[in-house]
Amino acid sequence: MNYTLRKLTDPTPEELEEIRAIFDIAFASERAFQSVVGPEKFPQILPILNRAQLIAGSLGGEIIIAADAANSNKIIGAIIWFGPGREIYDSDEQRKRALGPLMEVFPPEAKQWYAEVTPKMEAFKKASFGDRARTEWYLQRVGVLPDWQGKGVGTALIEEGRKRVGKHGIALQAVEPKNVSYYEYLGFKNKGHIDVQALHGDFTVTSLFWEP
Ligand SMILES: CC(C)(COP(=O)(O)OP(=O)(O)OC[C@H]1O[C@@H](n2cnc3c(N)ncnc32)[C@H](O)[C@@H]1OP(=O)(O)O)[C@@H](O)C(=O)NCCC(=O)NCCS
């Protein structure tokens, strides 16, 4: 299968929406966010979460896409990175344009839950990575269309990032055991896990770090 990788510079809203639609499909069974907002609201809020992450990535991070060369360069997968010194929702512009619209549709009880759990999650991140989640690269989100999964696209998107990090490492957090073992298979080291009780279910977050 023939695909190309491309870093988006100043993506248009249409391009971001095209990737958002890919993420909506790729993350349709994501458990962590579903456990937070509940299975009923999840399908409606997932696109808004994906849009928020993509707008944040376009403002403070980097987005790399994989496109199907044989089908009018339709996007088949994408990855969002935040480089050293940056993280998601860390600027007023990101908070206003990315987080703001997400918060508008967030159920009040989920907002309350986030407010309570955020200090714990921050402490866990610090215990796993020290300051390196912020001072090195952070892999925020990677998703590939189901028909294209298992064909090397995800690995190519991660490798493309790895080529660019120089002397830096890469931090990420994953929930699905399959994804944890995938990242370990790619050379990321397991830096510990935390069990999280959300309003609509429990899940485990695992920290992973790749040293150059
Ligand atoms: C996770 C994801 C991005 C990986 O992308 P992908 O293009 O499917 O990945 P690749 O084809 O490059 O690599 C997967 C292959 O690596 C190999 N592999 C993965 N884990 C492995 C392991 N532990 N041991 C040996 N081989 C392994 C397998 O060959 C696997 O293919 P398979 O699933 O058909 O067996 C993609 O599956 C996806 O979009 N999932 C849904 C969204 C998601 O969960 N994103 C990650 C959030 S942290």
Automatic annotation (TrEMBL):
InterPro entries: Acyl_CoA_acyltransferase, GNAT_dom, Trichothecene_AcTrans. One of its GO terms (molecular function) is acyltransferase activity, transferring groups other than amino-acyl groups. Residues 62-211 form the N-acetyltransferase domain. This is Puromycin N-acetyltransferase. The gene is pac.
